[in-house]
Predict the 3D structure of the following.
Amino acid sequence: MGKSLRVAYGEALAKLGEKNDKVVVLDADLAHATQTCLFKEKFPERHFNMGIAEANMTCAAAGFAHTGFIPFISTFALFGAGRAFEQVRNSICYTNCNVKFGFSHSGLSVGEDGGSHQSIEDIALMRSLPHMTILVPCDPAETEKAVMAAAEIDGPVYIRVARPVCEDVTTEDTPFVPGKANVMKEGSDVCLISCGLMIPKALEAAKALEAEGISTAVVNMHTIKPIDKDIILKMNKTCKAIVTAEEHSVLGGLGSAVAEVLAGENGAKFAMVGIQDKFGKSGKPEQLFAQYGLTAENIAAKAKELLK
């Protein structure tokens, strides 16, 4: 049975709390939505509901970090990365403060909450900040690894957490090293580089392309910053084309990060699948993914166009 990444996040925090008594959790009155309530049940004295006051929560987290604690702060991605951006920038990143951001309800997959709540620019905002590490886990198993890895990193870390229930596509034994992408499948014609909820779509696209005789590699770029330049440049040499796929705007996200590495590389053939400079709208996640082109069919079509 699959589970939501936000549930996996809450469970991982509770496990981490057992191992490390320096971990504290702050939430902006959304503990049942972000699932930090699971940590609160075990460690009520280390969980703080800061109310609907994200900027204040962010500054309070900086205070915890400066006194030797490891704060994880949680809210919806739109409010954490958007509303509190200046505090994330000045109180945390500017001082390279040891605060972790576990922001849930990212991307179009928030669904019926609509465009006002669907953060399609959070990676772009967080990626622009010096000292920030960005982890985008693709399934429950990887979400737990991301939480454990974040606690070991000294400095700000953003873990992008999604709402839908999903199945594991990785295993407990799949390595998770921040900054080092995982090659899920080797191939020599086209390479699909993806992250988060788009990983199953990339694997599905690879299957369809292979059925047409197109050798397809799939890379899980679970760390957007620092990006794994080595694997991108290697895939550019071994494959004829690269397609990125993400549940985020094509401006400033995974596609942009890969494009920055490929810029100036001779003969790079490259395309991006993502949200094309538009806001989200209300609907079921799968309907929205279809309408915005976040599908295996669209990934495969882009790959074939590049190979023509």
In short: The CA atoms of residues 29 and 57 lie 11 Å apart. The longest helix spans residues 5-19. The mean pLDDT is 96. DSSP finds 13 helices and 14 strands in the chain.
